[in-house]
Amino acid sequence: GQNIDQPTEMTATEGAIVQINCTYQTSGFNGLFWYQQHAGEAPTFLSYNVLDGLEEKGRFSSFLSRSKGYSYLLLKELQMKDSASYLCAVIDSNYQLIWGAGTKLIIKP
Amino acid sequence: DTAVSQTPKYLVTQMGNDKSIKCEQNLGHDTMYWYKQDSKKFLKIMFSYNNKELIINETVPNRFSPKSPDKAHLNLHINSLELGDSAVYFCASSPTLEMVSPLHFGNGTRLTVT
Questions:
Q1: Which member of A45, A102, A104 has the closest CB to residue B102?
Q2: Which residue in A103, A81, A80 sits closest to A14, CA to CA?
Q3: Residue B78: which region, alpha, beta or left (left: phi > 0; alpha: psi -120 to 50)?
Q4: Which residue of A has its CA nearest to B90?
Q5: Are A4 and A99 in contact (CB under 8 A)?
Q6: Do A99 and B42 touch (CB under 8 A)?
């Protein structure tokens, strides 16, 4: 079966750095997305990785290792508004999107 | 200039009723989806349509019937509502079927069945 694992919940301090991991086992791989979802709102796109390595976009970076079936989202200089759920999703060999259950990130002052 | 809009935002109804949720996108995308997000926040695809044609129909009770009158609209009709149907339903769109572009989500419809 296809599976995506993320920690259920993480807590971090304002101004700090946090890394949210995602491991996947899917039938094939055609890319990986990270989405942010604030409580009561729709998911919004953060990043897309299809090749190995680090993609940096402002305070957020996303890393991919296809050989390890692993990705992480790195959030720097955390702000209170970063409190949200972060969803990892993988495109499989049939170009279907497989979703993780999301990681709820709690930022404390 | 909302990209993906769905109505209503909240829907409270009793078991056994029939209800509809409407979705429209003005992005010119070819593909539209319905997702269900349960209380554990897990997003599960229900249906996808590409240019009005049904592509994905996951294991969803046949009480759920999507309709796409044109590629900019995808509505969801639910018959004989059950308590377990309570969830947030998201409409989404993408440029093509291959999912290599990000999904654009509507703001969700929170359905509560009592």
A1: A45
A2: A80
A3: beta
A4: A42
A5: yes
A6: yes
**Residue type, position B42, single letter:** F
* Beta carbon pairs, A and B, within 8 Å: 52
Residue A26: C-alpha distances to residues A33, A73, A98, B4, B34 (Å): 14, 19, 8, 29, 22
Closest residue of chain A to B97, computed from CA coordinates: A95
| Per-block mean pLDDT, blocks of 10 residues, chain A (109 long) | 93 98 96 96 96 95 97 98 97 91 96
Across the interface, whether the CB atoms of A97 and B103 are under 8 A apart is answered: yes
User: What pLDDT is attached to residue B67?
Assistant: 93
**B55 interfaces chain A, CB cutoff of 8 Å:** no
What phi and psi, each to the nearest 5 degrees, are found at residue B35?
-120, 150
Please state whether beta strands B104-105 and B73-78 pair in parallel, antiparallel, or not at all (unpaired): unpaired
Task: Quick: pLDDT tens for B1-55.
Answer: 679 999 999 999 999 999 999 999 999 999 999 999 988 778 999 999 998 888 8
For residues B6 and B35, give the distance between their C-alpha atoms in angstroms, rounded to a whole number. Answer: 12
B5 touches chain A (CB under 8 A): no
Residue B44 in contact with partner chain A when CB distance is under 8 A? yes
- Phi then psi dihedrals of residue B18, to 5 deg: -115, 135
